Amino acid sequence: MDFGLKGRHAVVTGGTRGIGRAITRALLEQGASVTACHRQENAEAAALRAEFASRGASARLVRADVTREADARLLLDSARDAFGAVDVLVNNAGIISHLPLAEMAEQEWARVVDTNLGGTYRLIRASLDRLARPASIVNITSAVAKHGMPNASHYVASKAGIIGLTRALCKELGPEGIRVNAITCGIVDDTGQPNPNGEEGKRRYAAMTALGRLGEPAEIADAVLFLACDASRYVTGAVLDVDGGI
After folding, report:
1. Which residues of the chain have pLDDT under 50?
2. Which residues cross the membrane (predicted)?
3. Angle formed by the axes of helices 18-29 and 43-54, to 10°?
4. What's the rounded Cα separation, in Å, for the pair 89 and 228?
5. What domains sit in the chain, N to C, each tagged with a CATH number?
């Protein structure tokens, strides 16, 4: 399916693994130029950089930490210098840890919230004078923002905050032609990453969905393509559930 993104320029945070990697690949396959970021040098970053080179992709991988304002600006400056104004910004970078509230130190609360919600704020703010007009911002959040999850209150709060940020900024930025939408992801079976719950955990989660299976990273990427393209040109402030009916 052609989403009409050829010649567009997208920035994807957390683009080297899992959902972010699938989004990066999907945008490239649609003919977009992509600037992806990663927080640290690792095997995933090296493999993606090699993949860009082997396919002669119009792509750049930049090391940037979304918890730092200077890094957010560095990423957007690097993207603009390489491929011009940014047509699509995908805020995907995020972290999680599992702790009951009674054992959650303030430092750990701050680490998760500042990465997930704070990082989204920083990237959008840094992008304002680097975005094309019109432009599309897609914020990746989680189904637990609506449904809740025990032993991860910091993660749930940060992902719920992204929904609030999306709905506020769609109104603030809409007059400039900037659309802001969010995708709530269900449980994705990323075969490239270890699953702490094992096969039994996968089966249990799959049974919680209406479709009886876990999602795939490419299915989240397809939703990003829709929100990035002109087919969704009258869609803003939306929270699109891509969760298999969990």
Report:
1. 192
2. none
3. 10
4. 9
5. 9-242 (3.40.50.720)
